[in-house]
Amino acid sequence: MLAHLFLRRVIKKEKSRGPHVRVAIYARHSTDRQTTSSQDQILRCEGYCEAKQYTIEDVYFDEAFSGAQMENRPGISNLLMGAFDGRFDRIIAEDLSRISRDQADTANFFKKMAFLGIDVETITEGVIGELHIGLKSTMNALYLKDLSDKTHRGMIASVLRGGVPGGRTFGYEIVRAFDGNGELIRGKRRIVEEEAQVIREIFGLYSTGSKLQHICTILDRKGIAAPSGGKWAPTTLVGSRIRKTGLLRNTLYKGVVTFNRMQYRKHPDTGKKLAVLRPESEWIQVPVPELQIIDEKEFDAIQAQLDERSSKVAEYRKTANLRSAEETNQISKTRIKHWRQRQIKSSGKVVAVFAGRLRCAEHTTTITASWADRYSCKQKGCPNRAIRYEELCDIIIREAMRLTCADIEAHYGHEAITKRRNDLDKQIRNAEQRLQGKRDRAAHALNTFKVNSDSAELKTWFEDNTEQMRLVKLEIARLKRSLEEIKAPANIADIHKRFLALISRLQVWSREPETVSQLRHVMKKYTITAKWDDSDLRWHRTCEIEYDFEAMARVLGKKK
């Protein structure tokens, strides 16, 4: 099949030779701050093509995508599809680094284009050859490495000046401050006393021997939200013993910033960043006494308690003391070997994005896999029988590409959603009024029964009232979470962009595990309709997709 594709491509190229060459323009910029960068590149490439008398067939671009990897860029994916379809004979870019800064990706892209007989030409270097691939891609890779080193050094310098890296930490809020030159000072934090009190309570409960699940239950009953916004979990408190994560292990609470614990490496196959623990000797710790919430002695005592209460840690330490240096080195090598094997291992069974969710519009029954990548309605004689897997992918992708930001906005503006929001608002107001009423009754009781405040009946009444207030608080928290889920997200454009990027990745590989997993959260049902076309005497099928827009906001609305 590849040989046939190559011959077809060569024949097309021979026909296209003449005074005009069909070209595709590709542009890319890395950060969302460079809002006009891709446009400037396209304009410059258009001027270059006009001077060369090239005929522009297609324009592809990737906005705010890093050049370190090609896997997740919809523009370059569409460019590859256009190349395989024979839409153009040459690719024009401003510079080779616009295509990729990764040596392997650049070489692989060039090999594919050479196989298809498509030239790659840039304004800076001219027609790209093997020499450019070897030298320029090496320079681009070195640029990425140098940029990474400079960024890391800048973060270390900020930490040494007393800054706190990363996002918001439970117990603190980010402070916006400016230096004498009017520039933003990054890393400034301030204690949030309400959350600091919760941290002190957690440390106090743990020091008295309370179990992790018991602490989580107490916090949930009080209506205190976890750092992530949901319920408390034991892992939130203890995290990882090796990585020193978790609320109880966070050294910032004793007034010390710990930085440089993790190193991030890019997986060669998926392009994803993987965290690798650095040796403890490379960690950087800087005192910040103004951010101390827990006394240092109390914090250190808790760390000792964490180790003692971990049976695995105790067992490991007992056996570690009996090992020789050679045994320790061998165990370390085996652990690293197994870690590498886990990175290469497949994530499990890969299913189609529409598996188990196809419906026949005519018979309202499910469409299931029948044989050899064919899908059929259960009803005999139905036109939706023996549908090819590739055809289903095509019609689903075509329909998904039609989704617009206006469609997402229309969902949140729908009458039913608006009614749900109004109902939840009303329920929240009623619950808050009930809570205030219970508080008022408690205050009235205190003022009325000052003399008999020690009576058993009054104590029982206060305990019942307190329990009822706790339940009302939990109800208010639940209602507010439900209301937040059906509110229109502020970043609809970003959500829509990420959704289209996933669909573009689905076009390149319809069974890519991560893409399929995310889209199965977003697209819930596919209804297939078949209509007979008398002009070409065959069935034409269309698809109607049922979206879960709340899940779309949860899965694709997070900042990356």
Report on this model:
This protein is an alpha/beta fold and 560 residues long. It is built from 19 helices and 19 strands. The strands form 7 sheets. The chain has a 5-stranded mixed sheet with strand order 2-1-3-4-5, sandwiched between helices. A hairpin with a 2-residue loop joins β15 and β16. The radius of gyration is 30 Å and the shape is globular.
Structural class: alpha/beta
* Count of β-strands: 19
What's the gyration radius in Å? Answer: 30 Å
Please bin the fraction of helical residues: 40-55%
Q: In percent terms, what proportion of residues is strand?
A: 15-25%
Q: What is the number of helical segments per DSSP (H or I, 4+ residues)?
A: 19
Uncertain segments? 1-18
At the first level of CATH, the class of the largest domain is: Alpha Beta
**Tally of domains:** 4
Largest sheet: 5 strands, mixed
What's this model, at a glance?
With 560 residues, the protein is an alpha/beta fold. Helix content is 51%, strand content 16%.
Features:
560 residues; alpha/beta; Rossmann fold; Hect, E3 ligase catalytic domain fold; 4 domains; 5-stranded mixed sheet; 3-stranded mixed sheet; 19 helices; globular; disordered N terminus
List the helices and strands and how they pair.
Blueprint: H1 2-16, E1 22-29, H2 37-52, E2 55-63, H3 74-84, E3 90-93, H4 96-99, H5 103-116, E4 119-122, E5 126-127, H6 130-160, E6 172-174, E7 177-178, E8 184-185, E9 189-191, H7 193-207, H8 212-221, H9 234-238, E10 256-259, E11 262-266, E12 273-277, E13 284-287, H10 296-308, H11 311-322, H12 325-344, E14 358-360, E15 367-371, E16 374-377, E17 387-388, H13 389-400, H14 405-412, H15 415-448, H16 456-485, H17 492-508, H18 513-522, E18 523-533, E19 538-547, H19 549-556
Parallel strand pairs: 1-2, 1-3, 3-4, 14-18
Antiparallel strand pairs: 4-5, 6-9, 7-8, 10-13, 11-12, 15-16, 16-17, 18-19
Helix pairs in contact: 3-17, 5-6, 13-17, 15-16, 17-18
